[in-house]
């Protein structure tokens, strides 16, 4: 906003400067006409010298105006070339930003595929973990069953020791076999626990790495989108400036045409100067009309400045509205990002729920299997 205010002040200062120069030129014309009028008040005025002075004066004015118009046109051409170069550079930067954005989106797509693969792997590992835990549970149940059976057998041995001396050796061998089976199951359970812990640690590390890469890519994507929006705003600003400069160029061309018409009018005025100088009253009327015309032009310039100020204020209001709209779009994008994060958390909860459900379901299946195959 401050830069726009400074630009507006600079434009107004330039317009005031041009009006001051025109006023000085009008005062110089007034003094010249007054001196010429005094020169013609003598008894025998030299009309040829007066006409030559007027022609010389008009030539000087025309040359000065031509130089001024040429300088303005050269400055405008240089500024237009600089703006065209800036626009080309901005377009190249926007193209590069679009390419970088496409690369980031491609990386995000690959990361999503990797994340899906890791999710499948996690589901497989979870299923394996459930199987291991089911095996552990079955082994523990078999161990408890063996302990109970051992206690029953010991009780039977104690109660029937006198009547079953011949079967004692068989029962002792059976008990030793059951103890060996129990020790083997415990060793297998310890090994499966260790493997499960290692797989679980690896999966957690891979999941943390994937989450970190996903967060980094999300931050890079937001940075690229912000840079793209800033480049787009700069490009729109440059386009508006280019349109304004083209309008000023057209105004300068129109002004040059008006100056050419004015020169033609002055040449016609030089032809009629002798007749104008013979009538002092008509010269006085012409002088008064010139002042009136000058006043009218100054009033028109002042009104144009007022209209220009109103247009700048309206443009400022429009830019403020656009900025507010951009803020709303940013808020909407933030809300969508939060929604996506919530969906990711929901997906994680669903995966955990499926993991628990498979765990319980596998436990029930192993219980049925143990009940059927037990001797």
UniProtKB/TrEMBL annotation:
InterPro entries per UniProt: CNTLN (IPR038810)
GO BP annotation list: centriole-centriole cohesion
Spans through the membrane: none
Presence of the UniProt keyword Coiled coil in the record: yes
Gene Ontology CC entries for this record: centriole; centrosome
Keywords: Coiled coil
Keyword Ubl conjugation assigned: no
Protein name (record): Centlein-like
Source organism of the structure: Astyanax mexicanus (Blind cave fish)
Gene: CNTLN
